[in-house]
Amino acid sequence: MAPVLPLVLPLQPRIRLAQGLWLLSWLLVLAGGLILLCSGHLLVQLRHLGTFLAPSCQFPALPQAALVAGAVALGTGLVGVGASRASLNAALYPPWRGVLGPMLVAGTAGGGGLLVIALGLALALPGSLDEALEEGLGTALAHYKDTEVPGHCQAKRLVDELQLRYHCCGRHGYKDWFGVQWVSSRYLDPSDQDVVDRIQSNVEGLYLTDGVPFSCCNPHSPRPCLQNRLSDSYAHPLFDPRQPNQNLWAQGCHEVLLEHLQDLAGTLGSMLAVTFLLQALVLLGLRYLQTALEGLGGVIDGEGETQGYLFAGGLKDMLKTAWLQGGVACRPAPEEAPPGEAPPKEDLSEA
Amino acid sequence: MALLKVKFDQKKRVKLAQGLWLMNWFSVLAGIIIFSLGLFLKIELRKRSDVMNNSESHFVPNSLIGMGVLSCVFNSLAGKICYDALDPAKYARWKPWLKPYLAICVLFNIVLFLVALCCFLLRGSLENTLGQGLKNGMKYYRDTDTPGRCFMKKTIDMLQIEFKCCGNNGFRDWFEIQWISNRYLDFSSKEVKDRIKSNVDGRYLVDGVPFSCCNPSSPRPCIQYQITNNSAHYSYDHQTEELNLWVRGCRAALLSYYSSLMNSMGVVTLLVWLFEVTITIGLRYLQTSLDRVSNPEEPESESEGWLLEKSVPETWKAFLESVKKLGKGNQVEAEGADTGQGPEAG
């Protein structure tokens, strides 16, 4: 049974391996911590922007998965730090001998699996943001006027604060406000002829104006904000046609939010990729260190050369051993079958 | 009678030195924190210097920055001294410097305490500069064409949006100044001509406010113009309407922001001051106990440490006498030199 990917490790390279592993483990701890911070930040942002994403959107799963993956990476890093430190000190190593094996399995399966899942989510989910934002923003704009309807009374404040903070207006532009009634009917004078005309002029009986809320106003404009009668070019004479129209925010909130969330998801994804690489290196290094020290019987300072390897036998042999050991455990009348790699072949031939 | 005498054996001395070494390194960290707090306050004051007439006093952040740097320097030095204190050979090098160093430490602690007090007390000057600065800022709101003032509109708008405030003391301040530039007024309109003629200075005054005064929590779309005219808007009473515009004045809003900043910085500085006083006291005990040991040349013996060799009034008397002696000493030397030269000449 040839060990898989053996590596001869005399004393000096073993020490170098342990030291390098210590450094990599601290880097892994740092990366795990950064992922925790970044996904926490994304979760807080999503809490504020939750009203503008459709309820069916799966995007919040990404920071949640990244949070767990980051925590596991942090734990793996700390284990690596402890184990590499212990492998340089004969007094500290014995307690690690027993736990290192199961920890490596847990780290590879759990940590690696979680990171792969989180990476997959980071690649797949931002695509669904477009539709979710479209639906969410449309609903929010439609409910802007419902400041007295329970369940939607916060929509006006949230949309105003969104437009003020992210410097955007409407979904794709300020003209979106022309298509929704954003003035509550409670503040419309039923005796005013203009109001009656506007309501009767469309099928749904909505009061539509060519005006926008105050939160669309751009403070960089040199003139006081023009909010009403925006389609009438004679209502507000342009005093300097050469100057660009900075009156309202030019961008739509859909584009701004999409870019913002996709940037955050992209950053998180790249950090997850780097952490995956670091974790793989740390786990590999730990495995080689563990097998090399097992070869010496757990004696750290042994001057002998040992081999570090990934697996004791080839993959086929490993599976066979595992299957046969499982079979031995299930057999009702166990023969004296010594556990080990050589005898299973004889068992097979007997059976 | 020594003040607060404590007996120290070798183990206790070692423990004291090690504890002080650790505390000194924590104190270096605290010094860095104070430095960054001072820097943060300086940046915040600079950010809003436009509405403070560029005449705000930077005394508090500058002194915090200075104290932070000094604290780092002194405490790293003290850490080195504590580290060397365990080795009699190395400690002998430091011995002559320790007394003046401790005197400087006491001075530093006094100044740190004063700086912490300043954080709490220097709010009044800020209020005046803010009031003046905001008044001027609102005056220049409409000068978006004048170079040097064209940014004032943007600054005031973003200030009112960020701090949720309107005007200097309230939204009525906007009624008293012309905040709409003449460039955007239609002088052929009768309404404009009437308004301009209605006041002595020929200004276009309206009972309206800029859009940045609007409160997003209001249930109705923002009413910016004709605020005091109830009949201009349906179902509107300006006396009872509270949610339409921000009620707070920007002076009060900015003052409360900077006050809370400076208060929290003052609290942190006081905590650091307490820590520093503890370190100075510990260093004094270490110095006195090690001094008593070095005389009999037996490093393992017990010794006593104290804060002051005699009680406080006696120490003060001794200090005054030594100052007098210094003065007399100069006189005696001068006379001696004269009499010495006298017989030689004579």
TrEMBL record, chain A:
It comes from Rhinopithecus bieti. The keyword Lipoprotein does not apply. One of its GO terms (molecular function) is protein homodimerization activity. It is a multi-pass membrane protein. The chain crosses the membrane at residues 21-44, 64-83, 104-125, 264-286. It holds the Pfam family Tetraspanin. It comes from the Eukaryota. This is Retinal outer segment membrane protein 1.
From TrEMBL, chain B:
The keyword Disulfide bond applies. Keywords: Cell adhesion, Disulfide bond, Glycoprotein, Membrane, Sensory transduction, Transmembrane, Transmembrane helix, Vision. Pfam families: Tetraspanin. It is a multi-pass membrane protein. One of its GO terms (biological process) is cell adhesion. Essential for retina photoreceptor outer segment disk morphogenesis, may also play a role with ROM1 in the maintenance of outer segment disk structure. Required for the maintenance of retinal outer nuclear layer thickness. Required for the correct development and organization of the photoreceptor inner segment. Belongs to the PRPH2/ROM1 family. This is Peripherin-2. It comes from Rhinopithecus bieti. The gene is PRPH2.
